[in-house]
Amino acid sequence: MKVAILAGGKGSRLAEETSIRPKPMVEIGGKPILWHIMMHYACYGFNHFVIALGYKGEVIKKYMTDYAALNGNLTVNLRSGEVTMHGGMRPDWTVELIDTGMETMTGGRIKRLQPYLGNETFMLTWGDGVSDVNLRELLAFHRSHGKLATLTAVRPPARYGHLVFDGNRVAEFNEKPQIGEGWINGAFFVLEPGVFDYIDGDDTQWEREPLERLARDGQLMAYKHTSFWQCMDTLREKHILETMWASGKAPWKIWED
Fold first, then answer.
1. Residue 114: what are its φ and ψ, rounded to 5°?
2. What is the DSSP string of 50-116?
């Protein structure tokens, strides 16, 4: 099963980082967040990736083409120019890098991947969020209901402390608790090829008309994930992920070094 990853956005709220690279290449612990996402999928045996490129897509292309050389040892014959790679981490991944346009919206990017995804079930996520969602259980849930689309619903951590009052007395204080209400779309989709019929073209936002129509048609199901999930839209959120990684207890790290 192929995994589509949208990696073409500009990441304007991370402008300090994204002026020189696309948001999926912003690093957590010295590795692009895109790598963290791909490692998550690969741990469950999903290692064929189709990545939608846009803004500064050449940075992702260069990273992927240089990956083996950058993560292993090299022997270079300067006379012949022959380079031999050995050792290091060389995952058994197939990565298709597809230019989907600079200004194409999310739905349009998905539509442009259709020729590369084929007429079969596929997974889809954004290139800027990590989670510890069990992908096998997610897939089993999708197959159990027979609908066209499954999204992973999450309740993100609150940004501020939560207060419960008894008059003016603080009866309860929780520092940045998990939100008790308000499930949101956390990506990590499982989709049938029929969803392409819900996307009109490049100007279509996946999060608007397609998902709204799928919901109206009874074709959108939610896999409720109550454990870790975190997007990286801002420098504050990047810092949160960096701190987790540095602690050695990053919740999304389910692989062995």
1. -50, -45
2. EEEE-TTHHHHHHHHHTHHHHTSEEEE-TTT--EEEESS-----EEEEEE--SS--HHHHHHHTHHH
What is the architecture of the domain spanning 2-69+88-246? Alpha-Beta Complex (3.90)
* Structure tokens that stand for 175 in this block: 């520092």
pLDDT at 74: 85
Residue 11 has a pLDDT of: 75
Kindly report whether the global pTM for this prediction surpasses the value 0.85: yes
Using the structure block, give the residue that is written with the tokens 């990286």: 232
Cβ neighbours of 102 (radius 10 Å): 12
Q: How many CA atoms lie within 13 A of 151 on its CB side?
A: 18
What whole-number distance in Å separates Cα of residue 54 and Cα of residue 109? Answer: 9
Give residue for tokens 């948001």: 23
pLDDT digits over 130-165, tens only? 999 999 999 999 999 999 999 999 987 666 666 677
